[in-house]
Amino acid sequence: MPHPTAGLPPPRPRRQLSRVSEKAPWITYRPELKVLDCTIRDGGLINHSNFTDEQVRAVYDTCIAAGVDYMEIGYKNDPKSFPTDTYGPWRHCEEEDMRRVVGDHNSEATGLKLAAMADAGGKSDWKHQIIPAKDSVLDVIRVACYVHQISEAVEMIEHCTALGYETTLNIMAISVVADAEIDQALEIGAKSAAGTVVVVDSYGNLYREQIDHLVRKYMKAVEGTGKDVGMHAHNNLQLAFANTIEAIILGANRVDATLLGLGRGAGNCPMEILLGFLRNPKFKLRPVLDCIQNTILPMKQQFDWGPSIPYNLTGQMNLHPRSAMAWREGDTPDDYLSFYDQTMADV
Amino acid sequence: MPHPTAGLPPPRPRRQLSRVSEKAPWITYRPELKVLDCTIRDGGLINHSNFTDEQVRAVYDTCIAAGVDYMEIGYKNDPKSFPTDTYGPWRHCEEEDMRRVVGDHNSEATGLKLAAMADAGGKSDWKHQIIPAKDSVLDVIRVACYVHQISEAVEMIEHCTALGYETTLNIMAISVVADAEIDQALEIGAKSAAGTVVVVDSYGNLYREQIDHLVRKYMKAVEGTGKDVGMHAHNNLQLAFANTIEAIILGANRVDATLLGLGRGAGNCPMEILLGFLRNPKFKLRPVLDCIQNTILPMKQQFDWGPSIPYNLTGQMNLHPRSAMAWREGDTPDDYLSFYDQTMADV
Predict the structure, then answer these.
(1) In angstroms, rounded to a whole number, what is the distance separating the alpha carbons of residues A43 and A40?
(2) DSSP states along B92-142
(3) To 10 degrees, what angle do helices B322-329 and B309-316 make?
(4) B-chain residues within 8 Å CB-CB of A289?
(5) B-chain residues within 8 Å CB-CB of A293?
(6) Which domains occur in chain B, in start order?
(7) 10 Å Cβ neighbour count for B45?
């Protein structure tokens, strides 16, 4: 369906897609489409990045076996802001911690590139924390910012690019940003060294036509720059997968997903559903199911994620999921009515 | 987004929609859009329609309080095929059983029309079972058939229409039917007395572009007849809500949903997500959450439904969910790998 040639914006010059009939494009695929697993990074927002080495290794091995293109192994954020007595190693991604799991990781040999996310706004001590790419197992730094932090984000991108990394610009919480501000940020981002600009629906609020509006806007902003557009969805309204498909149809070539949708709040686009949909034969579903069954599902005993009703409500109301997360961790996680009443009283 | 005027096919003559700016149609609504709750009917496929009177009454009261337009209270199928020692009253919808719950139900006063579904293929003794509408609490008979049963379905529709019912044609399992057969069935259906023809994705297999293809086809088939197009989605790929939105955008004016998505296998489009999205102020979310919390959620102790991985897999493979239902009821419901291997060996 989407994957293939159906993309509305004509392929950028470097893409030589054979024109497939419009009759059933969904049975073919677009080779440029790359999948990023952010299970450990986004999932780290529900457990302070306290995954065991075994859990991270299981996800790593799975990404390689499944043909996933990128794995985001955590945050490259500052231990001073995220102290090690509370936050696990995947909040800081020190080289020695990563190497304990991935060894000397070879992206050529494995077909997998490793990424970490660095937050703007003082959360990352990026000037000191990020070492030259040639000395790191990391291939990619994804820079996350709120729209007002775009200037620092671009500094970070230039810095990391100079260090030899592939970089991305992830402007968060886009559903609460005015169009004029998005336009301005994209104008700046389009001139940056970032290889990809990602549409980030942090609140899981966006419906189909809004996704269309944004993806078209992002595609237009990067037109002619050689940059890709990405999609990072949250599943508050059970739309993470659907919105990811929609972005793909419109030409997005970088999409994020997580195993069993593990991620903050309602979670993300489920990898197992995404890979079952993509028709590139390099993607393999079985290893993904193996990891879900043996590594991810058991975490449901400890952590809550997924599109339960409190997350539906914050998504519908275009709110940060923090109130729903607190509710789900409280004594009455299934008292939807009280959460509804509280939420309505607040808005 | 969808609801409003965004519908691609121009409104039929009887619709006088004010033309809203295309800039943010998602904040308005289309008054013609009607919502049908099929919690008890589709949910009856996982418990042999053995709901208690209290459960059915809770759903009925909720539909009225929430502004839902139709409630499908069960099947009008034959007790000889579905014996009363196994199947509950909501498989047959005898007048006395329904009246125990809904009294003399007045659709004018409540704003709610009651529907029952009758299956073609000998499952319903429709010639004898269905009494004149003026003597029934039912307002609507929805006729379900497989494509090869279209002739009997049309007979049923004519019969029920003559008895005074509003009728619909629900051709099931459309994802395994050849286009030429769908076209033929729609040509017949368009000439029938059915007020609505429903796109039914029984296997939860259809992706966005396939939904587009089908909804456009159905819209074209009924063009000029005054009939509506409906959407009945299953949630195998977490697309039930997204596909329902898509159908609405394309002009479908009848959509099915269930409380907490209760329904066969992966379940249906969740009413709580749908109503949170529709902008018609007549729809109220709070009573829906009340019923979910107090009536539907407790059923999770007894029954399994929702888009778990076995249902993802049958959806992806375009299979009837029966193997996944059996797996989820078995000893190892979360052994996804074995289910995957079994499923792949079978196809």
Answers:
(1) 5
(2) T--HHHHHHHHTT--HHHHS-EEEEEEETTTT--HHHHPPPGGGSS--EEE
(3) 160
(4) 309, 336-337, 340
(5) 334-337
(6) 25-301 (3.20.20.70), 309-346 (no CATH)
(7) 16
What is the SS3 assignment for A181? helix
What is the per-residue pLDDT across A279-302, written as a single tens digit (0 to 9) for each?
999 999 999 999 999 999 999 999
DSSP state of B293: I
Three-state DSSP state, A198: strand
Q: Are B144 and B123 a contacting pair, CB within 8 Å?
A: no
Residues A69/A36, Cβ–Cβ less than 8 Å:
yes
Q: What is the pTM of this model?
A: 0.93
**Alpha-carbon gap, residue B21 to A260, rounded angstroms:** 39
Which alpha helices (H) appear in chain A, and where do they start and end? Answer: 39-43, 53-66, 95-102, 107-110, 126-129, 150-162, 179-191, 208-222, 240-249, 271-277, 286-291, 309-316, 322-329, 336-346
- C-alpha distance from residue A24 to each of A6, A231, A251, A319, B236 (Å): 9, 23, 17, 38, 21
Distances (CA, A) of A216 to A20, A34, A146, A168, A230: 22, 19, 20, 18, 12
Q: Is B280 on the interface with A (CB under 8 A)?
A: no
Residues B290-344 have pLDDT tens digits of 999 999 999 999 999 999 999 999 999 999 999 999 999 999 999 999 999 999 9
Backbone phi and psi for residue A298, each to the nearest 5 degrees, phi listed first: -60, -25
Count of all residues that appear for chain B in the document: 347
Taking the C-alpha atoms of residue B89 and residue B96, their distance in angstroms, rounded to an integer, is: 10
State the DSSP string of A210-239: HHHHHHHHHHHHHTTTT-EEEEE-B-TTS-
The answer to whether B165 touches B186, Cβ cutoff 8 Å, is no
The set of long-range contacts for B24-29, using a CB threshold of 8 Å and a minimum separation of 24, is B25/A209, B25/B1, B26/A207, B26/A209, B26/A210, B26/B1, B26/B2, B26/B279, B27/B279, B28/B3, B28/B4, B28/B279, B29/B3, B29/B4, B29/B278, B29/B279, B29/B280
Contact indicator for B199, B229 with CB cutoff of 8 Å = yes
Q: What is the pLDDT of residue A14?
A: 34
For B228, the enclosing helix (H) or strand (E) is strand B228-232
What is residue B22's predicted lDDT score, i.e. its pLDDT?
Answer: 54
**CB contact (8 A) between residue A26 and residue B316:** no
Residues of A in contact with B270 (CB under 8 A): 238, 312
Rounded Cα distance, A228 and B148, in Å: 47
Contact B196, B170 (CB under 8 A): no
Which residues lie below 8 Å from residue B108, measured CB to CB, with a gap of 6+? Answer: none
Residue A128 dihedral angles phi and psi, to the nearest 5°: -110, -30
How many contacts, defined by CB atoms under 8 Å, are there between A and B?
116
Residue A296 touches partner B, C-beta closer than 8 Å: no
Of A207, A241, A309, the CB nearest to B245: A207
How far, in Å, CA of A250 to CA of B238, rounded? 20
Please provide residue A116's backbone torsions phi and psi, each rounded to the nearest 5 degrees: -135, 155
Of B322, B215, B221, B269, nearest to B68 by C-alpha is B269
